[in-house]
Amino acid sequence: MRNTPHAVMMFAAGFGTRMKHLTHDQPKPMVKVAGRPLIDHALDLATGIAQDRIVANLHYKPEPLLAHLKGRNVQTIVEHPQILETGGGLRNALPLLGDDPVFTMNTDAIWAGPNPLAMLLDAWNPDLMDALLIGIPTGQAVGHSGKGDFILGQDGQLSRGAGVIYGGVQIIKTGLLETIPDQAFSLNLLWDKMLAKGRMYGISYTGQWCDVGHPEGITLAETMLRDANV
Predict the structure, then answer these.
(1) CA distances from residue 85 to 54, 76, 189 in whole angstroms, order as listed
(2) Residue 171: enclosing H or E segment and its boundaries?
(3) Which of 42, 37, 85 is nearest to 60 (CA)?
């Protein structure tokens, strides 16, 4: 087993209920921002660091995504009959991802700035870390009103609390997945185990980030991208 991640897990199985009419006939990763599906914005980041394997899990209305990804360097897994959530979905994809630490990324965010996966790779230290997350300072999270998910210590260690917002991209070791008996579960269960051991770390993103989880996020993301390119 190597300690450097060489595979990307893209979470693309969700129902996208907050997107309302935009996901009546398509999954959320196919919603367009700046003329391109969200999944393509995510793929730009994943392929930008030349990963060996990119895997996407699908569930809700998978047909448009399957057609869109056909012939591209992405392996797909359709979760059926039930959605497995982030933790269960990651464990279900391990035969394709391998045993090394992996990148995981949500596919409903737009980034303006450096590639967050490259930032994580530069900061990854497997001797200290079981997970390394991208944290977004609240002032750099476009259209986000929350108080944050984690407190980022001076040494990079994370703890639960109001602070940085989890940006949906991380490097994580997968060995503890086998200790969770549930079939469908959130990665929060894995994070709790890592937090208890003091082996969960974060870095602060230096650009801007927009969570496109609702229709209004499309306009906000497009404005952010336009302003970043001026």
Answers:
(1) 18, 15, 11
(2) strand 165-172
(3) 85
Within 13 Å, how many C-alpha atoms sit on residue 9's CB side?
32
- Greater confidence (1 vs 24) lies with 24
* Strands 53-58 and 7-11, bridge-based pairing: parallel
Phi, psi of 159 (to 5 degrees): -140, 160
75 beta partners: 55
Q: Which amino acid appears at position 203 of this protein?
A: I
Residue 89 burial by CB count (10 A; 0-12/13-18/19+): exposed, middle or buried?
buried
User: Dihedrals φ, ψ of 122, to 5°?
Assistant: -65, -30
pLDDT tens digits, one per residue of 167-207: 999 999 999 999 999 999 999 999 999 999 999 999 999 99
Please give the helix or strand (H or E) that residue 108 lies within, else none.
none
The superfamily in CATH containing domain 7-228 is: Spore Coat Polysaccharide Biosynthesis Protein SpsA; Chain A (3.90.550.10)
Structure tokens at 172: 């994580």
Residue 48: predicted pLDDT: 80
Query: Residue 112: which H helix or E strand, with range?
Result: strand 109-112
